[in-house]
Specification:
Four copies of one chain form a homotetramer.
Chain A (H helix, E strand, L loop, with lengths): L5 H13 L6 E2 L4 H4 L7 E6 L4 E5 L5 E2 L4 H13 L20 H5 L10 H12 L4 H16 L5 E2 L1 H10 L1 H12 L7 H12 L1 E3 L1 H7 L1 H4 L3 E2 L4 E2 L3 H14 L5 H7 L4 E3 L4 E6 L3 E6 L2 E2 L6 H14 L7
Antiparallel strand pairs in A: 1-12, 2-3, 2-11, 4-6, 5-6, 7-8, 9-10, 10-11
Chain lengths: 311, 311, 311, 311
């Protein structure tokens, strides 16, 4: 492992991708995100010893969107434990990220915590017993703690933009509410959901926040246990099977690491026992995952041999 | 790693499971399989150095059924390379193993090579340019080679039983034929499919046959390259995301290893760089995967720390 | 035809059904409707000459629910004409009344104006350019005019009850809004929708209101043209193919008249050129249609030979 | 009604349609049908008194295809009565004619006897207890009897062509067989199915064969009762709701008569108590129904006022 020069690798990747013309398509369904410059690219790796290896726009904050679902899942499991699984499944969906079809067939229980419906159900767990503002504060502080960075904030313009236009998510939430899977006021739960999706982080901050998943559940800076080692493995497993919507199989096939994407163009990926990684490129592929982000991670696992599926 | 006593672990697992009363339900849709004694259990591990650690009914042959799909996929990739992916996808299906719904939505292209439809499409590739008997001989000899064991045979009674009753598979094959995804005579392709599913192997033989996937694609006995290291990783990734039908997420979550199940009650699992593992218990869970087999593997990864998702 | 004694027929039907024990199940998903006494039954026929033949609880008002969709469709066609069909289809859905699956497959365009999604889209047309209160007033006055009865009112308790609990309808409306099929504020459109479903009418009033569909589109009391004869035929055709949700085929098969049911237990049926008919019995069958109401109409068409499918 | 000049009407329709350039698309999935000249058009009406009014290519035989399903349904109801409905439903499908999706959801029971799956299940009833050749002979003789024409034959080239290429129908039949809905050897049932679909008839012959449905179930030439008056009405109702696949609603809306189409371009339509009608134009619309055939019938009901939905 010592022989891997991560600084050279990330520099090479950033340089290589700068010249690509096939950059995917910036998400346009959240108006506030539609204007992002598609030519940006960032990558940051925190290795096991805590060294940061970054290149490109690694310090530019972007909207983490669905990547926040990893952190809300972690929080919700801490609060209600395995009772969470009464409200959300653990299987890949075989459908696009915002599909409602499966909910009808399976009585309002979403297939996994990483599709929109599942993440709304998880958020609902965090809202129970709290004012929305409190629930949101708890999520934000948890992410700030994970990243060792109190400057991380929510981009309110993005949250408001999604709130005004998020009709499909509103449909999903009401649909689950009709089956009792969402328990709180739909507006409360969706308000918290839209806001935690609108958290803005850089690749560096995101990679920092993901360290506990590479360290068997421990927060390396404080050595506190964020989750048990078993739970960390299980969250990684869920990211591997469900973290890229209906492109999860493809990501596992090409990259070979647990990961979670967001429509802001970010991806967090975990090399267990080795590193926490974040990449960002705003253009998306047809499944709604960062096009160049996935290619960057594919280059990275080729160079490092970090695939969990063998050397 | 040296401290792990695999012999003790497999003995303990076999002993523990012998007393379980919740053994799942033996598959009854293939008449010839319906009469299997559900109280059997076997486990075999081939570690990286080639040592065998076995317990229970590890030398009793059983019908490998869908586990054969790992070997036919490997063969087909060797023959047509990535052109295979024009005919079959790489995503989890989100549906039961014999579902036909997705085929209609996606113009006859099955979601992955491990659901029935996908495996039939892969078999069709192996039939092209051959008589069915030749294609079947090639598959059998490949598995014998992988397992270093020329005694492995096909259980003709099982093959005939499935041929007589396999109406859903016949429906799937004809459906794909209507879209040109199956190219050969449906009876030829299905004949080969039913027969390779009817190959009988013991846990020991199966674990032997899986070694190349734990050894970066190399056959350890001969050091021949069965597939490239990259392809071995990718087959492992497909097993992780799609190897247990609509229970693949659950298997990844609980066991944390790439694996492939069959309705005969067998499961092959791969700990990359560490071991090839086979378990067998005839009773199935609701998703059609061996109930005790999965539990055995969960106990194994807990004891060994072999999960690919972290220690 | 002159020999048909309608008074005797309706008396016989009411008497016969009074003794039935299989009365279906009162809808419980709108709390305010769940407490209705299931032993009520009413029937009213307005023949072509305007004579009323009624029996049972023909003057007890009940919640017309989805029967209102016939009148809102008529109104909306009057306002936007065939442009309406850009937003809603004309085919049976093959799915339950509140299904959302088809909307995803067909980009938010509901299959017909009589399933919930379709009726919400039609209501949205009536809301455009108006305050909700105005739109609702227009619908109510239209029904009062059709029935020659200014005393017809909205049951506000039912409307409020559905508004508080109508999460699936809220999901449908938001889903269509995400595709632009609903144009107005979802709360406005749903408010009007819930209120027009909560209009309370007796069988007598409902049969009066339906006369124009039996009279080639003319209002017999005033001889005003409500719709053209062609449009009256077409509304009848839509009722025949789509008026009983996923039990429309069964209703056509058994009754043989265009009709529209509501979960309040009412059904309006049209014998073109002969009569307008309303029945009411609160218990529903599995498709959500009045169980005894359908049986009453089956008895009626047997006695009268009024089936549109032959004598 | 006496004033309707049917000869003038059919002549006018044939003349008007001769000049149309939008003729739809000839079915190409049965190779033998793909070469039909799309410029043909025929119409024949048998009025209640037995007079024939014909125009265009009314005496050119064409492949009746799915129109045969009306006659096989009539025969099967005669043999097993309402027990038929254990194997096939009576609801519109909301899906294309050859869809298999619904079968999976509803355990192999097709939605109605006029989609392919349903008609195969009905054919299977006719095959039970017979050699395929006998069953087919019975169907053919029944149609010859209905049409008073012993010269009607099966186009063997069409039957063979469909047998060679009918993979989707083979899929449907095997799928139903897996649920026990098809009871006989799949090849037997499909052989009979493909052959009765390949019966060739002219508009004149087809209109003759349909008379019993306009005459309350009686065969006017012999005054024999083919089916009871109630059953005739019910078959008409099924044609209205399900006779044009996923275009049934549209046909009811525009034409307003019970009808059944075939992919050969024919349509039979029934004006109960008035006439039996057949039209033929080979080009199909998107739902698989004759494009000009439907327009011809729409012109006819406008001119005659024969809609069952009012004058």
């Amino acid at each position: 492992m010592a022989a891997i020069n991560l600084d050279a690798i990330v520099t090479h990747i950033a340089h290589d991708l700068a010249n690509r013309s096939d950059r995917g398509k910036v998400a346009d369904y959240i108006p506030e995100l539609a204007g992002i410059n598609p030519n940006q690219f960032g990558i940051a790796i925190i290795d096991y010893d805590g060294n940061v290896h970054a290149a490109g726009d690694a310090d530019v904050p972007f909207s983490i969107q669905s990547i926040s679902k990893v952190f809300t899942l972690t929080l919700a499991l801490g609060i209600v434990g395995d009772r969470l699984w009464r409200r959300v499944g653990r299987e890949p969906s075989g459908n696009p990220f915002n599909s409602i079809v499966q909910l009808e067939r399976e009585r309002g229980v979403p297939r996994n915590p990483f599709i929109n419906a599942g993440a709304i159900a998880v958020t609902d767990v965090l809202v129970t017993g709290h004012q929305p503002r409190e629930a949101l504060g708890q999520i934000l502080r948890f992410i700030q703690f994970l990243a060792d960075d109190p400057t991380i904030t929510i981009d309110k313009a993005v949250a408001e933009s999604e709130k005004r236009t998020g009709f499909r998510n509103t449909a999903l939430a009401n649909y689950m509410k009709s089956f009792g899977v969402v328990e709180n006021d739909v507006d409360f739960t969706l308000g918290v959901y839209f806001h935690h999706c609108a958290i803005a982080m850089s690749c560096r901050q995101l990679a920092m926040a993901g360290r506990y998943l590479a360290h068997s559940g421990r927060h390396p800076a404080t050595d506190l246990s964020v989750v048990s080692a078993e739970r960390a493995r299980r969250i990684n497993a869920l990211m591997l099977t469900c973290g890229h919507y209906d492109g999860s199989g493809e990501f596992a096939y090409r990259v070979g690491l647990p990961g979670k994407s967001g429509v802001g163009g970010g991806i967090i990926a975990i090399a267990p026992g080795k590193a926490s990684i974040a990449v960002w490129a705003p253009g998306l592929d047809r499944s709604g995952n960062s096009h160049l982000g996935r290619i960057a991670l594919e280059m990275l696992t080729r160079s490092t041999g970090w695939s969990i599926f063998g050397t």
